[in-house]
Write a structure and sequence with these properties.
Elements: E1 2-5, E2 11-17, E3 22-26, H1 40-44, E4 48-52, H2 69-82, E5 88-93, H3 95-106, E6 113-119, H4 138-150, H5 152-159, H6 170-181, H7 185-196, E7 211-216, H8 224-233, E8 237-242, H9 249-252, H10 254-266, H11 268-272
Parallel strand pairs: 3-4, 3-5, 5-6, 6-7, 7-8
Antiparallel strand pairs: 1-2, 2-4
Helix pairs in contact: 2-3, 4-5, 4-7, 5-6
Length: 284
């Protein structure tokens, strides 16, 4: 793992391994590339894999300011330019998908991107009129903020098991909470609120970049109905639901997830030439 020094002064921890078409892994809110541990090396057998820790997250140094989805997207843009990535596929898990969409909104038509993979994330996490598929409404978000400020590690210790269909070992639970805690209560609270207030419903139908959508059947964090909404609204998308997973299908069913991703990327050249929606798929 190396540190990439961005023009803004922030530094991002980066794993860069393998060769071939670039695959850039973007983690969830307050998380880190640790959640892709079961994917990085297998994917690197066929691709150049770049896994990032967003500013202040994981192994990335703490930094004052810039803890917004929009700035994280600009940080990703800086990394893509620094590494001179071409025909890259962005893989966003949870909030990482929002970073991906913000990137597509800010840098529309970027020729460096060939595809987008959205894992377990709807266009908005805020439950509101017209959108019943969020994670929290405003009163619940205020409660989350209070809990995160009172006991950040304790808040996420309760949240982590909800992300999985299966039961974690004590070692896995402790490892995830330790990795999450690296961001700290203040930066972590800011990005938690900022990402929950994002809403990409107006942007989604305008996106022409091919999308692969991957969800777990036992999704307890978000709602599976958000995946159906995305598949209907995205002009070019393919949806898969992994039956033995929750919010983290890349961790719980890594072999299926990795095979699904590499197969989709292999078909991407033909997929880019398609004018119609690919077949709706479920299962592995």
């Amino acid at each position: 793992m190396t540190l990439l020094d961005l023009p803004t002064g922030a530094s991002l921890a980066c794993t860069d391994t393998g060769s071939g078409r670039p695959v850039v892994l973007l983690h969830g809110v307050c998380m880190s590339q640790k959640f892709f541990e079961r994917n990085i090396e297998p994917l690197a057998a066929r691709h150049r894999v770049i896994a990032l820790d967003f500013r202040g997250h994981g192994e990335s140094p703490s930094v004052e300011g810039g803890h917004t989805v929009a700035q994280y997207a600009r940080d990703v843009r800086a990394v893509i330019e620094m590494l001179d990535l071409r025909d890259a596929v962005l893989v966003g898990w949870s909030m990482g998908s929002m970073v991906l969409w913000d990137y597509l909104g800010q840098f529309a038509g970027d020729p460096r991107l060939a595809g987008a993979v959205v894992v377990s994330q709807g266009p908005s996490d805020l439950t509101q009129p017209g959108w019943p598929y969020g994670i929290a409404d405003l009163p619940e978000l205020r409660a989350y903020l209070q809990l995160a400020q009172d006991d950040f590690a304790g808040f996420f210790a309760g949240f982590v098991p909800e992300m999985f269909a299966g039961e974690l070992t004590e070692t896995e639970q402790a490892g995830f909470v330790k990795a999450i805690s690296a961001v700290g209560a203040n930066a972590g609270s800011v990005i938690l609120v900022n990402q929950t207030l994002q809403d990409y419903r107006d942007l989604i139908p305008r996106l022409t970049v091919p999308h692969l959508l991957v969800w777990g059947r036992d999704e307890k964090v978000g709602k599976l109905a958000a995946a159906d909404w995305l598949h209907r609204e995205l002009p070019r998308s393919e949806l898969h639901v992994l039956e033995q997973s929750g919010h983290c299908p890349m961790w719980e069913e890594p072999e299926k997830f990795n095979a699904l991703l590499t197969d989709w990327i292999a078909r991407l050249l033909g997929f880019n030439g398609m004018n119609t929606r690919p077949k709706y798929r479920r299962g592995g």
